[in-house]
Amino acid sequence: MADPTVAACQHAVVDADPDANVATVRERLADLPVRVDVAVFPEYGLTGFDADDPDECAIARDGAELAAVEAAAASHDVAVLVGFLERAGDAYYNTLAYVAPDGERTHYRKRNLWGDEAAVVTPGEERVVVETPAGPTGLLTCYDLNFVGESAAFTERAVDALFVPGAWPAAHAANWDLLLRARALDGVRWVVGCGRTGENAHGRYAGRSAVVRPDGTVGARLGRGERDLVATLDGDVLAEQRDLVGVP
Asked: Distance (Å, rounded) from C-alpha 181 to C-alpha 179?
């Protein structure tokens, strides 16, 4: 099997405008410069987030927005990981959808909530591993990176990669950088982090999407521009690093 190519599609998000964000996802997939197996988008990338009026942002997982992403994934033969504020009955969740080109979807609800998010969003309960072109892959969202227990659980499940959509504040960008590297080194695995960029009423976002190697070094990184970070995850690099440190 060929080594997979991933893209972190870093962009600004329009809060409470799912149509605009879906259009961005479709445009970015159409404009990828090379053949990509998995495209990762930022946290809340389809909806944005507003703690004062979450219903303006929230969408259902079976709604038109995810259907449009599914159609784009099929059209471009690429798996897509997108985040959104999910409305489920009377509850809201910070949810990721991994959409395979054949239309199969896997969902992860963020377990560790940050700041004003915790006042309106219900934490998820399940850790999620999905089979991707990068092998078994754990899904994390932004602040989840801070919790070593999350990383340890994925180490026990021997994932080959972590995909991490984020919306990290620019003022704390150094922490995002450090934690992506730490989580790669914890389990000797690839980490692909896709950060939101731009700004809104709450401040500026860090961007700084990155692909981190299984030895904890940064293979490639963006600044704050709206750009795609495209990288190939070399299976030999993973195998060699695991052999070096004695990880099966």
From this structure: 5
Beta carbons of 81 and 39 less than 8 angstroms apart? yes
The residue written with tokens 């972190």 in the block is: 8
> Rounded distance, CA 237 to CA 37, Å?
18
Please give the chain's pLDDT, 248 residues, in tens. Answer: 689 999 999 999 999 999 999 999 999 999 998 899 999 999 999 999 999 999 999 999 999 999 999 999 999 999 999 999 999 999 999 999 999 999 999 999 999 999 999 999 999 999 999 999 999 999 999 999 999 999 999 999 999 999 999 999 999 999 999 999 999 999 999 999 999 999 998 899 999 999 999 999 999 999 999 999 999 999 999 999 999 998 87
Burial of 132 (0-12, 13-18, 19+ CB in 10 A): buried
Residue whose C-alpha is closest to residue 65's, from 101, 28, 17, 102: 17
What's the pTM value of the predicted model, to 2 decimals?
Answer: 0.98
Give φ, ψ of 96 to 5 degrees: -105, 145
Residues 6+ apart with CB under 8 A from 233: 3, 4, 5, 6, 134, 161, 190, 211
Spatial separation of the C-alpha atoms in residues 132 and 130, rounded to whole Å = 6
Q: How far is 18 from 65, CA to CA, in rounded Å? A: 7
Q: Are 181 and 216 in contact (CB under 8 A)?
A: yes
CATH number, domain 5-245: 3.60.110.10
Whether residue 82 contacts residue 97, with contact meaning beta carbons closer than 8 Å, is answered with yes
Query: What is the rounded distance in angstroms from the CA atom of residue 38 to the CA atom of residue 230?
Result: 10
